[in-house]
Amino acid sequence: MRTSSPIILIIDDENKLVFGLKALLQREGYTVYTASNGSQGLQYIKQYQPNLIICDVMMPPPNGFALKKILLEDKRLAAIPFIFSTARTGGADIIAGLNLGADDYVTKPFNIEELLARVRAVLRRSNALR
């Protein structure tokens, strides 16, 4: 299922954050879907084939790290651009996320303009590789 605008899937169990981020990204012209846990996120990834996933690390199973590992096992899903958005700010967590193949790692609370710039950059790189 494709629309004319890039599809972004937000997977996070913080309802207020998801609501605000979804509204912001929609104002920027993106098609946005949301999931509140890893298993719903995996279902939506398969259903919507998003152009970008923004995913929390600490959420109901599978957590963000485990979800990224699941995606890596499926050739159709492994290359979907992926940004971790999390309160886990430790260097080891950031390194673990990037070593899993994430395209970026943003810590909460984040600056909205910075997150938008990172989303645009990841999508730009993704489009250039196609």
Topology of this structure?
Elements lengths: L6 E5 L3 H13 L3 E5 L2 H11 L3 E4 L8 H9 L2 H4 L3 E5 L4 H9 L4 E4 L4 H18 L1
Parallel strand pairs: 1-2, 1-3, 3-4, 4-5
Give an overview of the whole structure:
This protein has 130 residues and is of the alpha/beta class. It has a single domain, classed as Response regulator (Rossmann fold). It is 49% helix and 18% strand. It is built from six helices and five strands; from the N terminus they run E-H-E-H-E-H-H-E-H-E-H. It has helices at 15-27, 38-48, 64-72, 75-78, 91-99, 112-129, and strands spanning 7-11, 31-35, 52-55, 82-86, 104-107. A five-stranded parallel β-sheet has the order 2-1-3-4-5, sandwiched between helices. It is globular, with a radius of gyration of 13 Å. The protein starts with 6 loop residues before the first strand and ends with a helix.
Question: Mean pLDDT, as a whole number?
Answer: 92
The CATH homologous superfamily is named Response regulator
- Total number of helical segments? 6
Beta strands, count: 5
Keywords:
130 residues, Rossmann fold, five-stranded parallel β-sheet, 5 strands, alpha/beta
How would you briefly describe this protein structure?
With 130 residues, the chain is α/β, with parallel strands linked by helices. The chain is built from 6 helices and 5 strands. It has a single domain, classed as Rossmann fold.
